[in-house]
């Protein structure tokens, strides 16, 4: 079973046609007869003519026209009239748009496009040959294997939080009653040196009297000792100096702010009685703030303290645009599989407010030593399935073949290649899924069953005639649910174009299973996937995932639960909302909320669902 990462499903083999053994034998026989007939005609009659658009039509009339399209006929070349790059006998003809339909004889689809011949040489090869026209139709793009230093940009998201280093607490050093409180509410701005409140304290009045008595006596040691006691009790130096000069008691002592900030908590009111150590208020300065970024676990190897981060704030477009990583938290969230990275950002203007959303781009891959270059390919070119990682090699002249590789780190859209490729080789970067599927088809790894009909709603899901090929088609919907879950957990938007193959397969399944219990599942899943194309991220995508999982629930638990248990999938529900999701093993990662996850056990006894089974 294959899964999404940053590309569509690898199971697009199901879009390409395959025929059953009997039909394939007929195709071989008729292909040989057709090939032999055309060869005999071209050699026996030098005046053979054919249609440029329909080369299977042969005529000896030089003035004739094609009965299909009306084009003038052209002479048949000695090398044959086929435009395909294959050689040998024609085995069968496949749908030009990749739909699950084959024919033992030449034919056209509903759009008037000719079916493509599949030759014996293509079947025997481990790769696949594709005509130039089909290369263009399939959107195949190639890229060279090259080296990269992996000093790439990494994208992340985060929120603004207060810098706790700039947090301070105002506490009482005296015992007494508050009066003249100048700070009245949370949010008031306090400047350094500002009077906060006054306090009437008999203890300090007694100390002042002791100080005045010491001045009268003139004992310098005694004067210094009592003066220090006044200062330690919170009396300001200027007040002690005034007391020394005027010899008049200060009955209410003003208390001044030793640091600046915004009041985040106020614990007292005028008239409150304080004891030493009682909290009066909390202050928080915002000249510097922290941005806490959530970085995927896979990107942590590239993070370093000192990395530069480029920041964008929707709530403050003119705020500071750069920051520096000053701390990487030592733990990883077991639910989201992300780590927290702290970025220090200047905020002299005060426009960055705690809780604000930040779009972050890291200049990753920095270290004390220069980065070493590594062989790499575009990440989208790497295919992953039960065989491991592999790519499609472009051999030239329309020939392609899969090759197993060993991969390393993926950063900035490129993946490190450890084994299997050489610099300068050309690989397929787009359209490789169809080519890989075609190669799998050549190896006989999957076949599609013939369309069936005559179902009614009384047939249980477990009793439907689901063979390996059909099960793989249905698995596309399950893979789509896994793709949505991963996008929500990793914080990226899905690519709507990746959903098109699944929607195509759903349409085919709906034709084959009209009237069955599978039909409402297909309808509901189709609506959810179409909805996700318009809502590719965030809570709207989570809603579509919930809808899709609700649709798939009957199939997962009643159709082929043994198949999904064997594949290692785990079925979860949100403890608070009951919404469902699937995971490919690992610890539970709730895509909906921070609520706990409940494992839904696969039903037992379960119906076996092997790849080649036909009930």
Automatic annotation (TrEMBL):
Superkingdom of the organism of origin: Bacteria
Domain spans labelled CusB-like beta-barrel: 288-364
Signal in keyword set: yes
Region: Disordered, residue numbers: 596-615
GO aspect biological process, one term: plasma membrane copper ion transport
Domain CusB-like barrel-sandwich hybrid: 169-284
Gene Ontology cellular component list: membrane; outer membrane-bounded periplasmic space
Span of the signal peptide: 1-23
InterPro entries in the cross-refs: 3HB_CusB, Beta-barrel_RND_2, BSH_CusB, CzcB_C, HMBD, MFP_Cation_Efflux, RND_pump_MFP
Domain Heavy metal binding: 49-76
Entry's family note: Belongs to the membrane fusion protein (MFP) (TC 8.A.1) family.
The protein's name in its UniProt record: Efflux RND transporter periplasmic adaptor subunit
A Pfam entry, by short name: BSH_CusB
Keyword Signal in annotation: yes
Domain called CzcB-like C-terminal circularly permuted SH3-like: residue spans: 376-435
A GO MF label: transmembrane transporter activity
Alphabetical UniProt keywords: Signal, Transport
Record-annotated CusB-like three alpha-helical bundle domain positions: 203-247
